[in-house]
Protein 1
Amino acid sequence: MSNVILKNVKKTYDNNKVVINSVNLEIKDKEFVVLVGSSGCGKSTLLRMIAGLENITDGEIFIGDKKVNDVPPKDRDIAFVFQSYALYPHMTVRENIAFGLKMRKVPKAEIEKKVQDAAQILNLTEYLDRKPKQLSGGQRQRVALGRAIVRNPKVFLMDEPLSNLDAKLRVQMRSEIKKLHEKLQTTFIYVTHDQTEALTMGDRIVLLNNGDIQQVDSPDEVYNNPKNTFVAGFIGSPQMNFIDGKDLGLDENILYGIRPEKMVKPEGDIKLTVEVDISEMLGSEKIAYFDIGAKHCSAVLSSDFNIGKTLDLSINSADLYKFDKQTGERIY
Ligand SMILES: Nc1ncnc2c1ncn2[C@@H]1O[C@H](COP(=O)(O)OP(=O)(O)OP(=O)(O)O)[C@@H](O)[C@H]1O
Ligand SMILES: [Mg+2]
C-alpha cells in the first residue's frame, strides 16, 4: 500500500509566518493527485514535507500506513522530480539514470536491467549513450523521470516538472506522465500552478490558497461545483465572471458567478446589453471583454463582434452560481 495521509500538518518557517495551516488530506494508493494554487501558496512546502526535505512544525504524515515524521527522506520510499532536472552534464543518459543506484551499491547487473526497463518505458533506449546536452528539453526531463523510476518508489513526488519546457512539449509531456502513471500503478503527487495541467492530469485536485485547502475533488467537480469564489475563479480559463445581483435584476445580497462560455445562450431568460472594450482571439472562438456594473467580465463567442460596439447577452439563470457576498462561500 502506498497511500499518503496528512493529519493536521502545519508549517511555520523561522520567521514565524504560517505557511501551511493545519492541512488534512488522504491520498489513496495509486492515485494521481495534483496540488495546485498560485505562487507562494505553499505547494512546494507541502510536497517537501511529504518527502522529508522540510521539517513539519506540527501534525503527522503517514506513507503506506507508516508514520514518517522522523524517517529521513532516503528511507521514505519516495522519488522526487524537480522543475530543474539537474542532470550531470559529464555523464551519459545511462550513467545519469544509474547514478542513484550505484551510490546505493546495487549490483551492476541489476542496475543495467533497471536502466534498460526505465529507458524502454520512457522511450530513451536509443539515447542511453548520449550526454544531456545532446538531448531536447523533453528528453532531458524524461531522463530525470528515469532516475526516479529506477528507485521503484512507493510514491512519486513531482514539483512543476514541466515548467521549463515550451508550451507544445509541455502538453505532450502531460500525457506522457499520465501514461507513466498508468504503467507504474504507483501513487503520484504532482505540483503545478497551472489550472489546465491540474484539470487534465489529476484524478483529484487539491486547491491550495495561503496554506489552506480550499477544495479536494475530481477535475469535473472543482470545475462544475466550486465550493467558493476562490475555487470558481481559479479553475477555468477565461475565469468565471462574478456579477453583483443588482446588475442582473436579482437578489442584491448575492454575488452571482457565470462561466464566459455561457453568456450568449439562445434560451437565456436574462437579457443584458454591454459595450465591448477588448477582444482576444482564441482560435475558432473569440473572447469579448466588457463591464457589467463594477465588474469586468468576459464572454467566449463564436460569432463576430466589434470593440466599442454593443453586444447583446442572453444568460440562462440556471447557469448562475450563487455566492455569499461577504464570505465568498457557495450558496446552494
Ligand atoms: N526556507 C524558507 N524560509 C522562509 N519562508 C519560506 C521558505 N521557503 C518558502 N517560504 C515561504 O513560504 C511560502 C510558501 O512557499 P512555497 O515555496 O511552498 O510556495 P509555492 O506554492 O511552491 O510557490 P511557487 O508556485 O512560486 O513555487 C512563501 O510565502 C515563501 O516565501
Ligand atoms: Mg513551488
Protein 2
Amino acid sequence: MLEAQPIRRDDQAMTQIDYEKAGALIGIEVHQQLNTKTKLFCNCPTEIREDDPHFTFLRRLRPTQSELGEVDPAALFEFQKGRVHIYQNYDDSICLVEQDEEPPHLLDEEAVNHALEISLLMKSQPVDEIQVMRKLVIDGSNTTGFQRSVVVAFGGEIDVNGFKVPIQTIGVEEDAARKIQEKGTKTYWRLDRLGIPLIEVATAPVMKTPEQVQATALRIGQIFRVTGKVKRGLGTIRQDINVSVKGGAIIEIKGVQQLNLIGQVVQYEVQRQVELLKLRDELKNRGVRSGQIKQVVHDVSKLFQKSTSKVIKASLKRKEGVYALVLPGFAGLVGKEVQPGRRVGSEFADYAKFWGDVQGLFHTDELPNYGIIADEVNKLRRHLKAQDADAIIIVAASKSASTDALKAVALRAQQALKGIPAETRGPLADGTTRYSRPRPGAARMYPETDVAPITVTKKRLKRIRQGLPELPEEKLQKFHEEYHLSDELANIMIRSLRIDLFEDIIKKHPKLAVTAASTLETSWRNLEREEIKVDDIPEEQVLLLFDRLAEEKFAKEAIEDLLTWLAQHPTQTVDKAIQDLGLGVISKDELKSIIEQIVEANAVMVAERGDRAIGPLMGLVMKEVRGRADGKLVSELLRSAVKAQQQS
Ligand SMILES: [Zn+2]
C-alpha cells in the first residue's frame, strides 16, 4: 500500500536524531518515464527489451580540451583510465539517432504535452519557448557525450497533507542507456532505454523530516499517475534526493528506485551527516590538523611475509604488496559507525575502491582480526613510528592501485576535519548509501543547435487545460459516489500503485468496482504476504480476468486462486488458468442436481433439524463447488431443495 508509512526507527542512534536541531533541509527530484509512442528525439518505440541484441559497437568518449574544465572529475578519471563503452543495439527498434550517427529529430510533441499537463496540475508556469539544452555527460551513459533536456515550466507548488512544497522546475530529459555490466575497463550499455522521455519535477529544498520527503514523493507520484501518461512498474521511476544539515554540504543521492525507501534513505543520510560533524569536532578536540595528514604511502610488504590473512597472502602470491597510510589522531574513530553497519572506515573504503580500484582495506581499529595478528600490528606501528592515538590503513594490492587508494583515503581524512564533503552517493538496498563520485559543479548547459525550439502557444495551453485529469481528491469522491467504494477502500485505492489498472477495469466493468478494488489491494496484499509474486502477472491478464468474471466464466470466490496460478505461470493466460484449475462455472441445472444429491444424502439431518440444516449443508455444497458457482445462487437453490425434501 502506498500510504506515507511511518519511518522505521528501530535503531538506537536513530531515535536520537533531532531533525530540527540538525537543521536538515531536503529537496527531491522525481523522474518517471513518460508513456509516449516514440522517443524524445526520434521515432523509435519506448520499449525495454530482454531478447539478445542484434549487434554492438564500441566507443571511447573523448572530451575536447575546452570541455575538460567542465567535465565531472570522476568521469574524467574513468576516461583517463581508458574506459571503453560497448553499446548493444537492435535492428528494428533503435535508429541512427541513439547511435549518434544522425542528428536528433524534432522534440517529441507528445512528451511536451504530457509535461505541460503535469505542470498545470502543479500550478507551475509554463515557459513561452522550449529550448533544448545539452549537458556534458562522459560516463558513457549517452553515446553523444551529453544529455539533452528541456525546461517546460518554473515555479508552482503541491499540497502534501496541508504542507505546501514549492516546485522549482518541471522538465523533460532523455533517459540514459541502460548499464548491463562492467567487465574490467569495459562497460556494456543497451540503447533501448536511451532517449525515452523522462518527466522531471524538482522541489525546493524545504523538507525537514523523512516523513515529509516520503509523503512529497508519494504525492508527486500520485499526480503523475492521475494523468495516466507515465509508464508503470519498477525501473520507470527514479528519485534523486538532496540532503544537507546545518554546517554541512549538499549531498546528492541519485537513483532511488523504490518510493518506500525514500524516508529510510533520508533518515540514514541525516544520521551520517550528524555523525560526520561529531567526528570533525572530536578531531578538533584532539588537536588534529589537516597538515598532519600526509599522502605518504609506505610499502610494508616485508612485515607481512608470514601473514595468515587470506587477502594479504593472495596479494603477495600475485607479486603485489601490502601498503600502509598513517592517520594521526584517528585511533578509535575509523571504527565509528556513521550509518547502521557502515563506519568511517566504510567511507574511506569507498574512496579507496573508486579512486584506487582496490577490493577493500583494513584499519587498525578493527585489528587484530581477519588473519592479521597482534604481533603484526605492533610491528607495523613500530615500523611506521605511529602513536597509540594514530590509526593505520592497510591495503593489499599492486603498488599503483594501493598508492591511488591510500592517497584518496588521505584526502578523505583531510575532509573529515572540515566536516562533510560534497558528494554524489548511491543508495544500497537497506537505505544506507555509498559514495559514488564527487559532486560535480553546476554543469554548464549549452543550447542544442540541432533541434529547433518549440513555442508554447496560448491555444495549446488552453487545450491542455481543458483536458486536465481529476486530482486525487476528485477521484476519491468519484470512487465513493459513482462506484460505491467504501470510504476506506476508496482511500486505499487512491493511494494504490495499481490505481491506473483499477481505472482501466472499472471503465469496462463499472459494476465490478468493489470487487476490483478489493482484489487489487486486499487480495494482492494477502497473496504478497504468502510470498506469491502477484506483481509478476502481466496487466493485460488481470484485465482479462475481470472480463471473464463479467462473463461469469468463474465465480469471484476463485479470484485469489487464479491470481496465484497466474503468478506462478506469468507467461500463461487467464483462460488457461480457469481450465487448469477446473474453475469453469457449473450450469444452473448441474448445480441444482449436485445440491439435490447432497440434500438427499443428508435426508436424516433435514428431517431432524428442518431449516437449521441449511447452514451445515451450505458448507458441504460450497466445498464441492467453490469457485465454480456463485454463493448467493447456491444459497437460493439449497433453500428450495431443503423445502422440497421436507415436503416429500
Ligand atoms: Zn531512434
